[in-house]
Amino acid sequence: MTVPPPVLTATNIRKSFGDREVLAGISLEAREGEVISILGGSGSGKSTFLRCLNLLEVPDEGQIAIGDVQAPLTRNRHGRLEVSDGRAAARLRTQTAMVFQGFNLWPHLTVLQNVMEAPLRVHRRDRDEVLATARSLLERVGMAGFHAAYPKRLSGGQQQRVAIARALATNPKLVLFDEPTSALDPERVREVLALMRSLAEEGRTMIVVTHEMAFARDVSSRVVHLMNGRVESSGPPAHMFGPDASPAFRAFLSPAAL
Amino acid sequence: MGEHLTFIGSVTAQLVRAVPVTLLILAVSGVCATVLATGLTAMSVARSPLPRLIQRTWTFLFRGTPLILQIFMIYYGFAMVPWIRHGLLWAAFRDPVFCTCLAMTCCCSAYIAEIFRGALAAVPRGEIEAGRACGMTGFLLLRRVIAPSLIRIALPSYSNEIIMMTKSTSLASTITVLDITGVAQQVIAHSYRTLDVFCAAAALYLLINATLSTLLTALERRLDVDRAPTPLAPIPPTLEPLS
Amino acid sequence: MMDDLTLLGFGPDGWAPLLLKGCLLTLAVSATSMAIGTVLGVLLAWARLKGPGWLRRTALVYGVVLRGVPELLVILLLYFGLPSLILSLSETFGWEAPGLPPPFLVGSLSVGLVSAAYQAEIFRGGVGAIPRGQFEAARAMGFSDLLCFHRIVLPQVARVVLPALGNVWQFNLKDSALIAVTGLSELMRTSLVAAGSTRHPFLFFGVAMALYLVLTTLSSTAFHYGGRYSNRWDRG
């Protein structure tokens, strides 16, 4: 069996805010079809790391490649990294998609318009084709009946499902999830997790920052535990949730396991 | 350079002598407009429709037309009315300062009444109900419960309106009053050093506005119960009877 | 009474044509100054939000001065100052003296400069009212800055800003009456001339008031419906 090609390669990512080092050199490779769960306590840098991957945050050090395209990061005269070419960065981002904790649907566009916006305006795809894709995606996330509604009318879970449809609409190589269920009622968490599970079974490449241990254990192909800005341990869930897991990760799990 | 400074100095001296006129117009119309606005606010919540209609018409009329037109109406218009021209009121209506104050009182009372009305609507219902529940009615309820909340809510917009009024006093210069703008115009007309005179006059207006807004902000802060420090003094065992 | 009707009619002694022309001129001046104010206001807001330090401070001072100084003083500055500025510019560059600037330009420029100071505050507040996540969602999908401004910022700013812009427009409309002091025969000036030459001040100032009321009421209705349209997605 051949190893699938890497979709994302991040090497030695470092990031400080002022004096505080949030990321102390993290490397991660995601291969096609992998579902990687990133776990860690609050302040472990997991969200910052995710936001570095699509350059919403610019890392101080390190390299990022999507497929075989390097992120356009160069050193400025103060020795810090910066985005050298905004267009190239935007082009890189078109290969990925992100689902946010706070949904971030655009309130002035309807559900359908939210889903169609990026493929239509950024990717400049054919309108009929985009419409057909958007409709089938909304059906897929169970929001077909709401295409004409404005986001404000929807519940949190419904908004997040639309946001997932919006993320899939450009057919990205990689979908980043930034604590997608943290802002939801327990009731709504289940519907979003079920949707994410079915995406994983479909073979989507996903990197998920989450607190949902059950999701990490049952759905992901690899679990990464961040602590103090470093990868403390990582491995397949069977290993990480098994008896040979690192003590630090077991300590992290214990309050949840009780 | 030395001549330049001397000119600016003498212009500033001339303009400063006009400051009392500007302040007089502001003070008189400010006080009158606020009193009138209180009356208009009361009318706006009256039970019978007539006072409400009067308040609405007043607001519509004075907010919908330029102040300069209202000033001209009063200054030039009333001069043509025989019973005013030959009556006791003529002493007042021939005075441009009086006419400016009258126009500004009418116009600004409409704006201030809208501010008060908005603040009144924003006073939490629960506070009023709590007052009613312990037996307060009418004026007592107004004085002890409604007014303190209302003033706190209205003060930022009210400060804004006072700043606008300071700027509006300059319109007096169009009917021959020698306030700051009037003097500035005179000096410009025979010296043609527009920018110098403008800067001096602008500085005076900015100074007046800065002083007023500092005072009003200080008042706002004093009244802001949310930010007031918690009194550390213990509650005395026996309370003095409330006077 | 008959007399009044003749004075307000379209006949040889009637002032109706001039008053209507004055109305149109008032609208034209207000619209021009609104447009000047919007363009300059956007630039000022941009300077306050994203400009380098010195530009940010300049924009701040501009706002404090133009919002704190009487409009009449600004009009005087341009009315007396602009001709000498043009003269000295044309001397410096050796141009032919272009003559006096037209009063229409002086008037709309001075009201526009004041309007810009207020509009800048409105735009700044409008952009600040959009949650950060909105920009991030757009950037995460590869939107360029321009596309993000056009599709995400503009429609949402419009909703926040439109009622406030309606207020500024009302002030522009009323401030335009001050331009009468420069001799431009807009509605205010025309009614003043009519009042003086016919010695019927009540009649003509009354008519002018009525006309201003028509203008302000019509435009506030227009802004009301514009606001409702731009707000259609926010009604839960």
TrEMBL record, chain A:
- Intracellular or extracellular location(s): Cell membrane
Which Pfam families did the record assign? ABC_tran (PF00005)
Tell me where the signal peptide lies.
Answer: none
Q: Which UniProt keywords apply?
A: ATP-binding, Cell membrane, Membrane, Nucleotide-binding, Transport
Q: Does the keyword Transferase apply?
A: no
The domain of life is Bacteria
- Keyword match Transport: yes
Q: What is this protein called?
A: Amino acid ABC transporter ATP-binding protein (PAAT family)
From TrEMBL, chain B:
What are the residue boundaries of the ABC transmembrane type-1 domain, all occurrences included? Answer: 19-216
For this protein, the record's SUPFAM superfamilies field holds: MetI-like
Q: What Pfam families does UniProt report for this protein, alphabetically?
A: BPD_transp_1
State the membrane topology: Multi-pass membrane protein
Provide the coiled-coil residue spans: none
Q: Where found, per UniProt?
A: Cell inner membrane; Cell membrane
UniProt keyword terms in alphabetical order: Cell inner membrane, Cell membrane, Membrane, Transmembrane, Transmembrane helix, Transport
Please classify the protein's predominant subcellular localization into one broad category: membrane
Name one process (GO BP) from the record. amino acid transport
Kindly list the GO CC terms recorded for this protein.
ATP-binding cassette (ABC) transporter complex
Transmembrane feature ranges: 23-46, 67-85, 97-116, 197-219
The molecular function terms in GO held by this entry are:
transmembrane transporter activity
Q: Does the keyword Hydrolase apply?
A: no
Gene3D superfamilies, per this entry? MetI-like
UniProt similarity note? Belongs to the binding-protein-dependent transport system permease family. HisMQ subfamily.
- What protein am I looking at? Octopine/nopaline transport system permease protein
Species this protein is from: Nitrospirillum amazonense
TrEMBL record, chain C:
Q: Which domain of life is it from?
A: Bacteria
Q: Where in the cell is it found?
A: Cell inner membrane; Cell membrane
Q: Name one GO cellular component term.
A: ATP-binding cassette (ABC) transporter complex
Give the residue spans that cross the bilayer. Answer: 24-47, 59-80, 100-118, 202-225
The family note in this entry says: Belongs to the binding-protein-dependent transport system permease family. HisMQ subfamily.
**Does the keyword Cell inner membrane feature in the UniProt annotation?**
yes
The way this protein sits in the membrane is described as: Multi-pass membrane protein
Instruction: Write the protein's name.
Output: Amino acid ABC transporter membrane protein 1 (PAAT family)
Q: Where is the ABC transmembrane type-1 domain?
A: 23-224
GO MF entry, a single one: transmembrane transporter activity
Q: Which SUPFAM superfamilies match?
A: MetI-like
Gene3D superfamilies assigned: MetI-like (1.10.3720.10)
Keywords on record: Cell inner membrane, Cell membrane, Membrane, Transmembrane, Transmembrane helix, Transport
